[in-house]
Amino acid sequence: MSSETLYLPPDGWPRCRWCAAAAGDEAYLRYHDTEWGFPVGDDKRLFEKLCLEGFQSGLSWRTILNKREGFRAAFAGFDFEQVARFGPADVERLLQDAAIVRHRGKIEAAINNAQRCLELVAEQGSLARYIWRFEPQQQGGQEPEPQSLTESEASKALSKDLKKRGWKFVGPTTMYAFIQSMGLINDHAHGCVIREQTAKARAAFQRPR
């Protein structure tokens, strides 16, 4: 086990090194063990993560995770049809909500992105069908070492296309974090106890077509 890529919590099972940033935080460890890297095909969950990755910009994921329930309450469970109808009064309301990150630009971006999401779904059929078009395809070459990148060709392509469609706070680094967390790649470290589980989940996952 490499101490550079793995973290050994009190339960004795090695995890990805980034879990050490919140040592002793059960919610953070549970997120790593049950969500991060597992493939997602649900439009609301995908939209939620796109929004939360945008809110994370300049902050830690631990901060966002601790406020996730507050975000869900504030943004109608990330039902993008409802969020798309938010107006100036909602922006002012959200700026007073201590349960979320009160950043006007990010709040307005989430509302804008909900409106753009409606357009995308009308065109593509679902957000999931669109997102999974950007899953990197293994061509027989050697995969990058897990967690060795901050962006990729897939994240650059997704970022470029979303920006072209009018989305905001969707830069290539932000989209790489999204691709990692939503299971479009298996970026759990070699030796992490969860890596095999996410590999099995990806193998069984029915890609939206």
From TrEMBL:
<keyword id="KW-0378">Hydrolase</keyword>
<feature type="binding site">
    <location>
        <position position="32"/>
    </location>
    <ligand>
        <name>Zn(2+)</name>
    </ligand>
</feature>
<keyword id="KW-0326">Glycosidase</keyword>
<dbReference type="InterPro" id="IPR011257">
    <property type="entry name" value="DNA_glycosylase"/>
</dbReference>
<feature type="binding site">
    <location>
        <position position="192"/>
    </location>
    <ligand>
        <name>Zn(2+)</name>
    </ligand>
</feature>
<feature type="binding site">
    <location>
        <position position="188"/>
    </location>
    <ligand>
        <name>Zn(2+)</name>
    </ligand>
</feature>
<dbReference type="GO" id="GO:0006284">
    <property type="term" value="P:base-excision repair"/>
</dbReference>
<dbReference type="GO" id="GO:0046872">
    <property type="term" value="F:metal ion binding"/>
</dbReference>
<keyword id="KW-0479">Metal-binding</keyword>
<dbReference type="GO" id="GO:0008725">
    <property type="term" value="F:DNA-3-methyladenine glycosylase activity"/>
</dbReference>
<dbReference type="InterPro" id="IPR052891">
    <property type="entry name" value="DNA-3mA_glycosylase"/>
</dbReference>
<keyword id="KW-0862">Zinc</keyword>
<dbReference type="InterPro" id="IPR005019">
    <property type="entry name" value="Adenine_glyco"/>
</dbReference>
<feature type="binding site">
    <location>
        <position position="16"/>
    </location>
    <ligand>
        <name>Zn(2+)</name>
    </ligand>
</feature>
<protein>
    <submittedName>
        <fullName>DNA-3-methyladenine glycosylase I</fullName>
        <ecNumber>3.2.2.20</ecNumber>
    </submittedName>
</protein>
<dbReference type="Pfam" id="PF03352">
    <property type="entry name" value="Adenine_glyco"/>
</dbReference>
